[in-house]
């Protein structure tokens, strides 16, 4: 702990960023080749600050540099709105995506010891609306534009979840098209909703050795093959081996179908290719889907991905990946401190101590008195 007391809270929070990887890519892409003032590193720190403080526009971000502590923190005393805009719209988002994936690797390293059972990974998407007038490249209806964030979330014990893979497309892209991209590990259990239903893919995933759990539509054609016996006092309505689909378009593999009641009293049909787990275990796995709903809600409420700073596709993608980087940095400090604090609490404490010594922020996270 003594080694980090001279850092500011922002500096400590930022420290997991792999600057060696970052600077190598900056050199390869020649991003700072003609830059005299706004270096890529300063720009990264400024965008991270903007996310933390929920700065609403580039105009406001430029004005924030009036603060001499921010100037020192990002190594920049002032910058014009036009320079910020050019950087944001012209920078390939692969740079920020690589930083995000590197942070995910660091989270993996800190959480691998908890994987006593098959890891649970949740797949879903969320549409981020855009103004059609300014974002015609993202049109998906006559009067609407938007991008879709396709996400894979790792669901961990103790309530910690983190984004592991993110793909951005226009809102026109159907969820099913991303399923094969998101499913790539045979040692995991994938959970997703009805938007990903595709019988042919389910067969292919099963043949290839991937495990999944999905919700089935009410009007799905089902052929019951076998009824599994349920334990007494079970909350499960039924547990069956089935074939799915019509005679003309039926799955080749047998699947397991559970009928359960959710917390609102609605009946759900859950389809999986796992026969080795109890019906109660499968039902509990599906309940973990709430984690990705909470994640989307969190980043939309507490990170700046509702008001976008730029109009180009690259600008939108850059802002989303910066938001994901912010979340991963919060998770890393949560793991490092072995803290039970909520992500929102950690973020609030950080904002309150941003340019103060890191020990103040860290002691607050630990629940210790501030000397």
Question: How would you summarize what this structure contains?
Answer:
This protein is an alpha+beta fold. The protein is built from 14 helices and ten strands. Strands 1, 2, 3, 4, 5, 6, 7, 8, 9 and 10 form a ten-stranded mixed sheet that branches.
What does this structure look like?
The protein is of the alpha+beta class. It contains 14 helices and ten strands. Strands 1, 2, 3, 4, 5, 6, 7, 8, 9 and 10 form a ten-stranded mixed beta sheet that branches.
Topology overview:
Elements: H1 9-14, H2 19-29, H3 40-52, H4 58-64, H5 68-74, H6 81-90, H7 94-111, E1 120-130, E2 139-141, E3 144-155, E4 161-170, H8 179-182, E5 189-192, H9 199-208, E6 211-216, E7 222-227, E8 238-244, E9 255-261, E10 267-272, H10 279-287, H11 290-302, H12 313-336, H13 343-352, H14 358-366
Parallel strand pairs: 1-5, 5-6
Antiparallel strand pairs: 1-3, 2-3, 3-4, 6-10, 7-8, 8-9, 9-10
What proportion of the residues is helical, as a percent range? 40-55%
Sheet with most strands: 10 strands, mixed
Beta-strand fraction estimate: 15-25%
Q: How many alpha or pi helices?
A: 14
The end-to-end span amounts to: 15 Å
The overall pLDDT average reads: 90
Radius of gyration: 23 Å
Pattern of helices and strands: HHHHHHHEEEEHEHEEEEEHHHHH
Structural class: alpha+beta
DSSP, total strands: 10
């Amino acid at each position: 702990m003594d080694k980090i007391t001279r850092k500011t809270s922002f500096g400590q929070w930022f420290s997991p960023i792999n600057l060696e990887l970052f600077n190598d890519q900056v050199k390869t892409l020649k991003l700072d080749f003609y830059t005299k003032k706004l270096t890529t590193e300063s720009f990264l720190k400024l965008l991270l600050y903007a996310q933390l403080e929920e700065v609403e526009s580039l105009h406001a971000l430029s004005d924030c540099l009036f603060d001499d502590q921010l100037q020192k923190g990002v190594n920049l005393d002032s910058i014009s709105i036009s320079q910020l805009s050019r950087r944001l719209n012209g920078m390939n988002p692969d740079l920020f995506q690589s930083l995000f994936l590197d942070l995910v690797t660091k989270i993996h390293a800190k959480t691998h010891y908890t994987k006593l059972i098959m890891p649970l990974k949740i797949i879903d998407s969320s549409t981020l609306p855009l103004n059609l007038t300014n974002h015609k490249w993202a049109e998906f209806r006559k009067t609407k534009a938007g991008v879709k964030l396709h996400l894979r979330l790792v669901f961990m014990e103790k309530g910690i979840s983190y984004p592991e893979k993110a793909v951005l497309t226009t809102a026109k892209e159907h969820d099913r098209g991303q399923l094969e991209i998101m499913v790539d590990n045979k040692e995991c259990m994938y959970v997703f909703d009805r938007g990903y239903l595709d019988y042919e893919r389910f067969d292919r995933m099963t043949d290839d050795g991937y495990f999944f759990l999905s919700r089935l539509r009410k009007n799905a054609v089902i052929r019951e093959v076998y009824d599994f016996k349920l334990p007494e006092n079970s909350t499960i309505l039924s547990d069956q081996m089935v074939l799915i689909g019509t005679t003309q378009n039926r799955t080749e593999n047998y699947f397991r179908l559970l009928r359960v009641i959710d917390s609102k009293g609605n009946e759900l049909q859950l389809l999986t290719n796992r026969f080795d787990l109890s019906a109660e275990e499968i039902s509990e796995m599906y309940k973990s889907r709430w984690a990705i709903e909470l994640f989307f809600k969190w980043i939309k409420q507490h990170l700046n991905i509702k008001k976008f700073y730029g109009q180009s596709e690259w600008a939108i993608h850059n802002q989303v990946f910066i938001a994901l980087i912010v979340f991963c940095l919060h998770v890393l400090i949560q793991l490092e401190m072995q803290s039970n604090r909520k992500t929102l609490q950690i973020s609030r404490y950080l904002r309150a101590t941003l340019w103060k010594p890191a020990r103040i922020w860290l002691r607050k996270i630990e629940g210790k008195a501030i000397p």
